[in-house]
Please model this.
Amino acid sequence: MTDAGSATSDSLLGDFTIDRRKSMVDQAHTLLQNAIIFSKLPPGQVLKERELCDILSISRTPIREALLRLQEDGLVEIFPQAGTYVSRISIEAVHESQFIRVALEMATVGYAARHGTPEWQTKTRRLVEKYKQALEWEDFDELFDLDEQFHRSIAEFRFRDRLWKMTNSAKAHMDRVRRLSLPYRDRRLAIAEEHTAVLDAIITREEAQAVEAMRRHLNTVFQDLERVRTEHGEYFVD
Model:
């Protein structure tokens, strides 16, 4: 494993501010997890506890606990006496993430097609339109967030919060590939079309069509995987 450089305050924090009233461990874990998914901390990046403490202005104990959680997530590797590094993207973990996500989201999109209310449909349509508008800005982090909001809206229509947390924790490895694919303009345009197809089928109560549209949408990650792997082979491990 090589040292890919050091983290910086700007790259990690952005406009994020630590809330002293909340769990330091949870906040450090979320911040570092997002930085890894968004490639602000790329595969192979060395993670130094002292640097992270200085950047986040918190003590070593919550940083150490957050890193242990990330190790459990498969997002970092900790080598005693050698250092802590952002893990490379495991092909097997991407496939596992995808399997879990498809199982969960196929069920939620079917439920939304059967029971979606006009109010919920309108709210979700706004997310689809916001994504299309954001295509012009080429803000990849914003596009990723809007993509997440679309899927979260469907997941939380039936089960508030908990189901999305389960989905989110299962898909971290796949999300790294998704984020790396966003610089490809054709992929960004395809996501907008795929979201539209899913929502149109939901609104017209065509459950089977909605489920199939979601399946096709989610399975494009395998095409993205091959493309990203070709360009960033050093980020991956079999």
Summary: The chain has a mean pLDDT of 90.
